[in-house]
Design brief:
With 264 residues, the protein is an alpha/beta fold. 41% of the residues lie in helices and 12% in strands. It is built from 10 helices and 7 strands. The chain has a 5-stranded mixed sheet, with helices on both faces. Helix 3 packs parallel to helix 5. The longest helix is centred in the middle third of the chain and has 21 residues. The chain is globular.
Length: 264
């Protein structure tokens, strides 16, 4: 579970704890800064269930590669990967050290890089599942494959966020069509309008409690035989038409390979 130390991720970590056989949580903070959360999760685990915390900054793709390496060192099988880590768009367009617009990097190529680094462990010996936490904002976005960093298109924090989430949903559809084994399902989910720091950084609206989103993610995580589905909360729904278009999926895949060429 990535992005597990605040908001939706924190609530979902607690919601999944009682069913986990080995729970691996990720966050950007060092472990000593999240001791309270880890203690709460540990109390919710079944006796004897291992809990592992790994820290990585998604603003650094080399750190994401290291995150995959640390996870692999601790397990040889993954039943469920929840890609939840995300950030809001900053007030002004910002390019990070890897040369990518920072919202895009955290919300799209970073989770793709982690997923790719773990893909052979997911659904290998038993049914496996990837749940990519998306956003309904992707429905109104346009995927600019010729301008992923929004250098030539109008920028706003919400535009950057929706653009990155459309890329994630499109990737989910592509991976579902190219999954390495039929025992692996790939889905994406809009968890609802949830009151988190991420929401309030971009939108002046209220939202539901993070526990509601956690229950939704847990519900979607438990589903089967729905490979490629986009969920609007608990309801299967059509994604943005760009995400469903095989030609767009392939073009995004080619772009992603270029963005990650030094890290794959």
């Amino acid at each position: 579970m990535t992005g597990a130390t605040s908001g939706i991720g924190r609530a979902t970590a607690l919601a999944l704890a009682g069913t986990a056989g080995h729970l691996v949580l990720h966050g950007p903070e060092p472990e000593h800064d999240v001791r309270e959360l880890l203690a709460a999760v540990r109390a919710a685990l079944r006796p004897g269930t291992p809990l592992t915390y790994v820290a990585a900054d998604y603003g650094d793709l080399a750190a994401v590669t290291g995150l995959a390496r640390q996870i692999r060192a601790g397990t040889d099988r993954i039943d469920l990967l929840v890609n939840n880590a995300a950030r809001p768009g900053p007030a002004t367009r910002t390019i990070g050290d890897d040369g990518n617009e920072v919202t895009l990097q955290t919300n799209y190529p970073a989770p793709v890089l982690l997923t790719t680094g773990l893909l052979d462990l997911i659904g290998r010996d038993a049914p496996g599942r990837i749940v990519n936490v998306a956003s309904a904002t992707h429905l109104s976005a346009t995927l600019y494959l010729d301008d992923p960093g929004l250098a030539r298109h109008p920028y706003s924090p919400s535009t950057a966020y929706a653009h990155s989430k459309l890329a994630l949903v499109t990737y989910s559809c592509w991976l579902a069509a190219h999954r390495p084994r039929p025992s692996l399902d790939v889905v994406s989910v809009h968890p609802g309008v949830i009151s988190t720091r991420l929401l309030h950084a971009m939108f002046s609206i209220g939202g539901e409690r993070p526990e509601q989103a956690a229950a939704t993610i847990r519900y979607v995580a438990a589903r089967r035989d729905d490979n490629g589905t986009y969920y609007d909360e608990r309801r299967p729904a059509p994604p943005n038409p760009q995400a469903s278009d095989p030609a767009t999926q392939d073009r995004l895949h080619d772009l992603t390979a270029r963005l990650l060429r030094d890290h794959l």
